[in-house]
Amino acid sequence: MRRVYMDANATTPLLPEVVEAMCPYWTEHFGNASSIHRDGQQARTAVDRARETMARFFNCHDAEVVFNSGGTEGDNTAIFGLLHPGDHFITTSIEHSAILEAAKRLARHGVETTFVAPQPSGLIDPTEILRAIRPQTRLISVMLANNETGVLQPVEEIGRIAADTGIFFHIDAVQGAGKVAFDVRRIGCHLMSISAHKMHGPKGIGAMFVRRGTPIEPLLVGGSHERRQRAGTENVAGIVGLGKAAELAMHSLDDGTIYRLARMRDRLEAGVLALAGTGVNGVTSAGRPVLRAANTSNIWFDNLEGEALVIALDLKGVSVSGGSACHSGATEPSHVLLAMGVDRNRARASLRFSLLKTVTDADIDHVLQVVPAAVEHLRALSPVEAGTLG
Questions:
Q1: Mean of the pLDDT values across residues 65-69?
Q2: In this structure, what DSSP letter does residue 56 have?
Q3: Model's pTM, two decimal places?
Q4: Which three-class secondary structure state does DSSP give residue 182?
């Protein structure tokens, strides 16, 4: 059976160039990057080169790049590393659980959080961030691209608000990295988190931009690794893989790959929306999609259970998602869609299609053959559609 993977926002496969770059650091150049002998220094050189690549990726100084285990650790570090009892924290109600759960924990330790709700389009209004600021506000955290809808947030405007008010600003860029051109200097953020496995790199490795002078306390203490900002022996192969993935991502932002990806997404979306009782989550009041990550489309299917459609499509060789992979198996509808004001039934009937950069026209053709048949079959079984719901 032909299989088409359209759950790239959950994870992505390693590109061949990334595998090739990593392989020597598992077997041949296996040294500890903190050792002073030749084997250790070969590893240290690889880490330093990857750090230089990540500095270009963020547009920052090498010393402002901190390697870690991924997006969750980066988000947690920004929050737990800056906030103390009595501080006030501003974030949004559509953030990843790595932010939302950290805020819940801090509530037990005297840190109050304001959760700014999005507009029905999924966009955060920067003026609502401004209104939420108090004298005690120490940190603002807003994601770059929503992991479920792909909606791009106005982080530059929020960065100006943070700068004008003297508040630290963190961006969860996990879903935007490699799909959206950004510049931490232009945005004006103090902290940014990314994860390799969302952009064709390995799992278990990520990086943070930490602006010089930001008084962040490390989550992990021990050795003097990462300039004492993150203790623990460096994952050299993972760091090399992240650096190569970032290098390839930068190329894809310049060579037309992202534009091609957006066209593929739009063709898929148009084909699915030709079905009755469908629509996009993340549109303006005029019905036009807002700016989104190039690969992401979140579509609702009336008179369906999204989970049933995920299973039906999987049986036909198409992998999609009902929302964040971090909540797989959850029975509750997406907190992101509910925060946008989407009806609970429609939220349950929504699927996320997130395309790989390697997607082909043949992949789109296959999905557009499979989805209508699956939708028609499931709707025929629906008690509402069949008229058997008493």
A1: 97
A2: H
A3: 0.93
A4: coil
